[in-house]
Amino acid sequence: MKKAGKGEWGYFRWERFRRSMISGVLLLAAGLIIVTGIIMNGSLQNIFTVFGMVMMIPFAMSMTGTIVVFLHKSLPEERYEAIRAREGSLLMAYELFVTNEKGNSMLDAVAICGSEIVGLVSEKRSDKAFTQEYITRVMRQNGYKVNVHLMDSLPKFLERMDSLNEHADSLRAGIPFKPDARYPDYTREELIWHLLTRISL
């Protein structure tokens, strides 16, 4: 299975595999410790049982994250290919599960160009209006004035991508930008991309 980082296509597919493996290893370790104690002492009443039960705590915490990622699927390949074909000069992010104090939204894809952030949201339970406001607020708090537009129609999203590409030079022109000392090599759009991944699972 191909490894995918946050903001890349296939992230949730990879995270399902990765987190399942970690949870499985933690459960196996706890079981082996308990079984070793039984074999060595002939009963459950030994220090190995205590260690084994303590090991169940990180397993339970790991399973919580595993369950969360299993609630979401990676963007279907055909939709990804349709979007990728229209990327042009746009900086793209994929499969962002944006979390906030009032709810969560799964962004299938996000296009960044200048001060424009356009996202595709296919999950019907997502609150697009609140997520738009939330992303705008987070960006503003970090010094980025942006226009955020989330939509649930793939054809309209692709049309918007085409429009952004067509006007990319003018959309990027004249935007003041002060590099971040922590990421001196990042462009303004790359810093926005990085911030989007930070507010996502």
Order of SSEs: HHHEEEHEHHH
Q: Name the quaternary structure.
A: single chain
Mean pLDDT: 91
Distance from first to last alpha carbon? 20 Å
Question: How is the largest sheet built, in terms of strand order?
Answer: 1-2-3-4
Q: Can you give the helix content as a percent range?
A: 40-55%
Number of alpha- plus pi-helical segments: 7
The assigned structural class equals alpha+beta
Main beta sheet: strand number and arrangement?
Answer: 4 strands, mixed
Which percent range describes the beta-strand content?
Answer: 5-15%
Rounded to an integer, what's the Rg over CA atoms? 22 Å
Overall domain count:
2
Report the count of strand segments: 4
Which regions have little confidence, pLDDT < 50, spanning 5+ residues?
Answer: none
- Describe the global form: elongated
Detail the topology: elements first, then pairings.
Elements: H1 11-41, H2 47-70, H3 77-84, E1 91-99, E2 104-113, E3 116-120, H4 128-141, E4 147-151, H5 154-166, H6 168-172, H7 188-198
Helix pairs in contact: 1-2
